[in-house]
């Protein structure tokens, strides 16, 4: 994806917690004044903020743009129509319906932002990896372990042998049994979980193909996997980034599963028939 095609606002929200104080100052300015930003020179923005032009320029580079103009082009493409910030901070005195509305709207934006930063070529490669895998294993710890189980639950239907592990010992043990014909999917919002990175190291030592689902940005996980698929979410007082990212992680897995299912339509018929027959025994 070229710099000109990158999305600006989702990237700011995704990286916000890692910014320095001066970077947060620039980020807050852009988020609050996107329309003003695209009509301002770098000198005007620096003057408004009381910072050096170099600070604004470095912020653009930090987001992955070649410079200020490239960032403005990306920003302009996002605000052809007036932006409504659908995320509102939850207040202690909000009633139940208001809290529910804000949570739903925050989830919607997480999905929209994640969809914007999804790299098409990386996604296609991930589908191809899964499609030709002898075996697929999903690894995640804590909340990401629940996502790994959901992925396993879905991919059982494809007829491709799969498994999910959320125990760190099982992860390294199982990874040691995989081969270059297999695929291991590592799910971690932070991308810094030590146990998961150890399992990744074991998998790579056996030439296993690896996919990571993690927050946007350079993390130990995204740098080490063969393919990184990114989620974007924003932290609030009552909701951590990791919590908000779950729906984005689930949606990426859903999209991978549906793509694999379409390509394995004939093979899945027998698998689904056997599964439905077995499940029917559980019903009255």
How would you describe this structure to a colleague?
The chain is α/β, with parallel strands linked by helices. It folds into two domains: 73 residues, Winged helix-like DNA-binding domain superfamily/Winged helix DNA-binding domain (Arc Repressor Mutant, subunit A), CATH 1.10.10; 173 residues, Rossmann fold (3-Layer(aba) Sandwich). It contains 14 helices and five strands. The protein has a five-stranded parallel β-sheet with strand order 2-1-3-4-5, sandwiched between helices. Helix 12 links the parallel strand 4 and strand 5. Helix 7 packs across helix 13, helix 9 packs parallel to helix 13 and helix 10 runs parallel beside helix 11. The longest helix has 23 residues. The protein is elongated, with a radius of gyration of 21 Å. The N and C termini lie far apart (52 Å). It holds the Pfam family HTH_6. It comes from Halalkalibacterium halodurans.
Produce the secondary structure layout.
Elements: H1 9-15, H2 21-32, H3 34-37, H4 42-49, H5 53-62, H6 68-78, H7 96-117, H8 120-131, E1 136-140, H9 143-155, E2 162-165, H10 168-175, E3 183-187, H11 194-205, E4 209-215, H12 220-224, E5 227-231, H13 241-263, H14 265-280
Protein name: RpiR family transcriptional regulator
GO molecular function: carbohydrate derivative binding; DNA binding; DNA-binding transcription factor activity
Domain SIS: 126-266
